[in-house]
Amino acid sequence: MTRILIAEDEPAIANFLEKKLREQGFGTKIAEDGYSALYESLSHNFDLLILDLGLPGKDGVEIMEELRGQGETIPIIILTARTSVKDKVIGLKGGADDYVTKPFSVEELLARINLRLRSRQEPKQQPEIVLKVGEITLDLHAHTVKIGARTIHLSNQEFILLENFMRHPDRVLSREELLNYVWGYDYDCDSNIVDVYVGYLRKKLGRDTIETVRGVGYRLKLL
Ligand code: CA
Known about the structure:
By secondary structure, this protein is α/β, with parallel strands linked by helices. The chain is 40% helix and 22% strand. It is built from eight helices and twelve strands. It has helices spanning 11-23, 34-41, 60-69, 85-93, 106-121, 156-167, 175-183, 193-205; strands at residues 3-7, 27-31, 48-51, 76-80, 98-101, 130-133, 136-139, 144-147, 150-152, 173-174, 210-213, 217-220. The chain has a five-stranded parallel beta sheet with strand order 2-1-3-4-5, with helices on both faces. The protein has a four-stranded antiparallel beta sheet with strand order 6-7-8-9, covered by helices on one side. The chain has a three-stranded antiparallel beta sheet with strand order 10-12-11. Helix 6 crosses helix 7 (175-183) and helix 6 (156-167) packs across helix 8. It is elongated and about 55 Å long. The chain starts with a strand and ends with a strand. Bound molecules: calcium ion (CA). The site of calcium ion has 5 residues, from loops.
């Protein structure tokens, strides 16, 4: 099923969009603020993002910058009340694929969504969907992790954490980097959530897979 993430803080619009998209057979999810929009967009669970620019927490432009900065290629259609040419240029330069202004016609929005989804399906350089480091294989599409032939079951957060390690093999990643990438916002800075999740990964993948680099962070070890 093609899944669309709706980043929109106005419930009336979000619910209306959700209803219309579901009628068309799309799977949907609503993110009501910038942080959850960014987090969900990075989850690889969606095929397209409809992005309101004025969102609480993080605004749409910041979200696009972070997504594109991390190499995330999800098609983005901006849906916003900001109609100035300047805003459109900022949006499109910031990495959006299309721009629809409110009030909008559902038919037009659907046409643009379908256009974006179609051009995505055309063969071009495929984004990397299988990461391999040493014995570990992580399939972003199937959402599976294997060590050799053995399948390892990970929670969503563990999966994203491991993905981040595998995208930077042999590099030391700081707690802040990992926190930002996996949890996507300023978690309580004293929180040891990163350490806790590294512990979970070690338990599942083997004690030696992730090395602690004192005072710096963690590094994935090539098995
Ligand atoms: Ca808004």
